[in-house]
Amino acid sequence: MEVLGIVLSLFLLMFFAYRGFSVILFAPIFALLAAVSQGFSPMPAYTELFMAKAVIYVKSFFPVFMLGAVFGKIMEDTGLAKSIAHAIIKGLGKERAILSVVMACAVLTYGGVSLFVVVFAVYPFASALYKEADLPKRLIPGTIALGSFTFTMDCIPGTPQIQNIIPTNFFGTTLYAAPISGIIGGSLILILGMTWLTRRMKSAKANGEGYGTGHTNEPPAVDESNLPNWMLAVLPLISVLVFNFIFTKVYVWDPSLLDPFMAMKLPLMAPAVKNVVSIWALISALVVGIAFAISLGYTRLPKGGLAKALNAGAIGSLLAIMNTASEVGYGNVVASLPGFKSISAALLGIQVGGSPLVSEAVTVNVLAGITGSASGGMAIALDLMSKDWMAMAAKINMSPEILHRVASMASGGMDTMPHNGAVITLLAVCGLTHSQSYPDIFAMTVIKTSMVFVIIAIHSLTGIL
User: Fold this and answer.
1) Adjacent-strand bridge partners of 352
2) Whose CA is closest to 172, among 284, 263, 265, 248?
3) Residue 177's closest CA among 103, 105, 254, 248?
């Protein structure tokens, strides 16, 4: 019965998220439902456990969410993101339509532009290109998903997306953790994803299917003459990557920086500088990137446009951080219940040769799938079990770097279930339905999920990071 209450709570959260209800409101409701079903008092469970864990998440990651959203909004409103997407898509041409859209998404995502901004920036060009090449419009979401939601989101070392940042806080690693494993995994995902989409395109052509007619949300023609020079537009992305590398790998942070604050006995303090260096580095790099983007695109903004873009980015980040923080709060309430002990023991018991990697991959994947959020599912999993996984790894002299990379890659696996917010937004922007385009998105999900276990196998056989 104890486990049944948790399962019912999880099912209701998935159902309501899929139906479009905000997890900010319903995550605590269903967390308390599970708590009450096992004899816990609802109000302490809400104010002292749910909110406490949500606040810890906000404290750790809100600056990255906020600055990332502001950077993306500036890149979008100044036309810099569209300029980069246009240059890549036009450069590769309609003969390589699928690859061009994937690479446009990949460059923007790896440069630090948020996934949602990438969707809005790339879709108009992807639609025009697919129409020119007479390829089915229903393939666009899967193509954008491959370029944005997979290898550049959490595989390739150094990516500044939140899915690659969260593990640093738990494992004391950097964004460049396990670089060879990440590159191998990312390359395999790109190859297999392109193979799938290419086969789908050829099959559609063989059946005489073209772009189609009667589509909704068709974008207006883009005024290409008014776009900024792409060679200038790409500078903010380069600056984020370069300065992030400098602040992570070159600049030496003083390990005693936290000492004066430790003496103040502040709540929620990081245990050591190494646990926050990656976050500090990315904050600094994003500030530089924002400054570059503003200096290059300021004249393209209408009067009051800068304030509008900055405000929109800041306000938009609140929704993103609170969605994820609510999921983290939910997970910690559930984890505190007696019924979760058997679930936790089963997940921790998934070991191969004493390695925690399979347990970690399965746990992160399952929680990401349940919450419909890569960052939310991973944050819950790491908050609950990272210490256990670290202890297992220490026993077999396993580097925390591979724990980081596996967690990061696993988070982007089953998170793209039908109720995932990014999936719903992507389909809405493209004017398509789940029945039309989700099969290709799901194929990317299967490929992505499978590659995590391939990387685990490669690491187990070779020990490479």
Assistant:
1) 355
2) 248
3) 248
For the CA atoms of 365, 371, 374, 379, the dihedral, rounded to the nearest 10 degrees, stands at -90
Cα separation, 114 vs 118, whole angstroms: 6
How many angstroms separate the Cα of 250 from the Cα of each of 168, 178, 291?
17, 18, 22
Span 50-81, pLDDT tens digits: 898 888 888 888 888 888 889 888 888 888 88
Helix (H) or strand (E) holding 26, with range, is: helix 23-37
Q: What Cα–Cα distance (Å) separates residue 338 from each residue in 215, 223, 333, 371, 415? A: 51, 60, 11, 21, 26
pLDDT tens column, 208-245: 888 877 777 777 766 677 788 888 888 998 999 999 89
Among residues 181, 196, 118, 188, the alpha carbon closest in space to that of 422 is found at: 118
Q: Dihedral angle at the C-alpha atoms of 92, 93, 96, 98, nearest 10 degrees?
A: 90
Exposure class string for 49-76: b at 16+ Cβ within 10 A, else e:
bbeebbebbbebbbbbbbbbbbbbbbbb
CA dihedral 367, 369, 370, 373 (to 10 degrees): 80
User: Residue 122 has which token pair?
Assistant: 């790339």
- Coil/strand/helix, residue 352: strand
